[in-house]
Each structure stands twice: as C-alpha cells, then as structure tokens.
Amino acid sequence: MDIECDVLIVGTGIAGLYSALNLRDNLKIALVSKGDITQTNTYLAQGGIATAKDASDKPSFIEDTLRAGNYKNDLTAVRILADESIENIKKLIELGVDFDKSDDDLLYTREGAHSTNRIVHHKDYTGKEVADALIERVLKRKNIKIYKNFYLCDLITQNNRCLGGIFIKENKQINIFSKFTILATGGIGGLFKNSTNQRILTGDGLSIAVKNSIKLKDIQYIQFHPTAFYENTNERRFLISESVRGEGAYLLNSKGERFVDELLPRDEVSSKIYSEMKKTNSPCVYLSLSHLNSSYVKHRFPKIYSECLKRGIDITKDSIPVAPAQHYFMGGIEVDLYSKTSMENLFATGEVSCTGVHGENRLASNSLLEGLVFSKRAANYINNLSDKTLLKKVSPKIITDFEMVKRENLKIAIDLIKEKRWDLKDELISH
Ligand SMILES: Cc1cc2nc3c(=O)[nH]c(=O)nc-3n(C[C@H](O)[C@H](O)[C@H](O)COP(=O)(O)OP(=O)(O)OC[C@H]3O[C@@H](n4cnc5c(N)ncnc54)[C@H](O)[C@@H]3O)c2cc1C
Known about the structure:
This protein is α/β, with parallel strands linked by helices.
C-alpha cells in the first residue's frame, strides 16, 4: 500500500507534534508513531521546560547550558535555544498548556546546575500536560492524519534525497511518499537494561541513519540520570525528577550521611553516587524529603508521591532508594540550525537529532525546549519551500522478512553504541 503526503513526520512526542502544528495547515501531513501516540518519552517528562525568564536572564541561561555541557556545546545553537525560548513557551500556553502559576504569574522551579529558578512546569507531570494539549490540537487539524503502530524500518531515497519512509504494520509493508520527511523518533533508552525511557524507543532513527550513510554526531554522549527509583526489575525505571532536589531534597548514603552537592550537573552527581555505592558496597543511595513540609511535597509532587507509595515508600517520611539509570541521548543525527540532516529533504528534531545544544551533558529541562525551538525552525523552513518542491516516487525496496529487518535495526543501534562506548557494553540489552 502507498500513501502520499507533503510532509511525513515520524514520531508523536513533543518534536513530532510541535512540528506538525507549526506546519502550514494547507500541507498534507502524515504523523506516525511506532506504538500508541502517547508511548513517548515526552509523556513521561516530569520536571518541566527550561526557559529564559526575560531578556536579562538569557546570558546566564546560556552560561548554565554551556557549563553543564562542559563547553562542548555548539554556541550558536545554545544562543538560539535561549533567544527563542520565551516565544515558544508563550506559543505552548496559546495552544492550551496549563503551566503552574501564582495568580497570573508563571511559577518557575529550579533544577540541578541552573543558577536560578527558570523551569516552567505542571506539577510533576509536565510532559503529559504538554502532550495532551498538543494532541488535542493535532486531532482538530484536518490536514494531519495519524498512523499508529507503524514501524519505520527504512527510508525511500534516491541520490541522497529522501522521498519518504518504508513502514511495517501488522506484517504488511506500507510506503509513505513525501516531499519532506521529519525524523522525530526520540532516544535510545530501550537499548539499555536500566533506563527511565519508554522500552519501545530503541534508537531506530540512528539505525536508519547508519543504513543510509546520514551523518551522526556525538554518539558517545549518553546521559545517566542520578536518581531513578532503585528496584530489582526489568521494567522501565521510574524517575525521581531533578526538581525534587531543586526543591531541597537531600542525597544520603547508606549511613544516612549527605555526600554530594545535590544541585551539581547530572554527570557529576551520577559519578559521585556511583563512587558512594562502591565505597559503601550498596546497590543504591537514598533521597530524603522528610525535612520538607509534607503537604507541600504531596501537592508539588503528586505523581512521584503516588508512584513511590505503590512501591511501599511514603516520600514525606521514608527515604527513596535511588541509583543512576540511562536517561537521555545528547548525540544523534547531525543537523544544522534548521534541523536539516546531511540527506536532502530529510530533517531530524528532538532527541534523535544532535543540534549540539547539550554538549557533553544536557542541562535539566533543556530537552523539551530543544524539541520546541528546533522543530519550529524545521517547520518554518519547510513552509517556505513546500510549494517549490515536487513529490517524487520511485519503487522502494521490498521487505520480505519483517522480523529480520527489526532485528537488524536493533543490532545496528547496539553495535553503534558499543563502538563508541565500549565501557557501557554490559549495560546494553543483547540482540
Ligand atoms: C522519565 C523522563 C522524564 C523526563 N523529564 C524531562 C523534563 O522534565 N524536562 C525535559 O526537558 N526533558 C525531560 N525528559 C527528556 C524528554 O522527555 C525527551 O528527551 C523528549 O520528550 C523527547 O521528545 P521527542 O519528541 O524527541 O521523542 P519522544 O517523545 O520520545 O517520541 C518519540 C516518538 O518516536 C516514535 N518512533 C520511534 N521509533 C519509531 C519507528 N521506528 N517508527 C515509527 N515511530 C517511531 C515513537 O513512537 C514516539 O512517538 C525526560 C525523559 C524521561 C524518560
């Protein structure tokens, strides 16, 4: 079966949804997800979205982002991130996102390595609030058609130009031809035994890039979040947001002693936790909020409170067992400042892309912001070019063994990570 559209967007997280909503409403858009449309890391985001509060906050936001990234960031991309943050947060509010406020003023919280409070949030489930609002808008747009449970296994290409994507749906091959394609396929957590990510996110965008010789960047930069709930399970690890430490929680070792400045960048806190676990021969450390006002804690972190309670921990009294887990991928498909990849008519936005904003280590809450800023840039670019571009069709390759293609893609992604980070080989799933 063949489908034709102006823009094919693969991914229904913040990057895919926001790209779709910023494209002209006279463009025919196919919006595709591997699982259900809410099976995204976006839906899981807790802490919030970083933003410059006003023009005077931009220099310090830029400096915090660079310092967290160990100055390996792309400075121009970081400046754009800060410069365009305020307009994109305003746009989210226009689209119906309800950030926490005091009277009419946005409430800003703080997270590790930010020098001031600048994170807008909706309690401790900001991602769900944002995704629900964007999905509601997308469903109202007649020019956007959603295709669920479509697995992108390869691109349709000719002479380094992207002509669409090849999908597998219930053991059938479906080809979607498009003038432009946006890969918004998210991260790589599903490749790791311990990760806070949705298990279905197995770096498919990366495998497809490798197969098509599309340029990649910074693959070695993989972030481990310091505080995932520690439990002996193969399931996704439940995250205890950085904003919990931002609001004053302490990290304690097995003797109940503090051992680290809780607000250091993530890589530094994770590394201190690993050393402490080794020193005390313990599989985890503890996060304590018991010194904070309990009704405030329940009101500010309702999701974390209820999820921990399900696991037998009352966070207003008990310490939470935590250990680092794979969380975020700073590297990805190399893109320019308009999210263009090295393949013509192919864009990448969100976690699958590498704009260079995060450098070696992402500053807390900069991921959702990156998804907004650079998806809008991609959409604007396509809006200007679409009328001058013709849809082109060729005969795509025919997939005969669907399971084999999926296994191959998994192997390509795992091998790529192993090649760049041999030290993490035991953390990866087997294939
Ligand atoms: C627990 C948790 C908490 C977080 N909290 C925050 C936070 O507070 N602030 C912040 O800034 N960041 C946070 N992050 C990071 C942030 O949520 C993600 O980086 C961001 O949401 C990624 O958005 P995305 O649109 O790129 O990808 P996602 O939202 O992950 O969406 C990926 C999409 O790609 C689709 N897809 C993947 N492969 C295929 C395929 N082969 N075929 C078809 N479709 C495919 C999936 O179906 C999905 O729709 C958090 C992450 C986690 C896991």
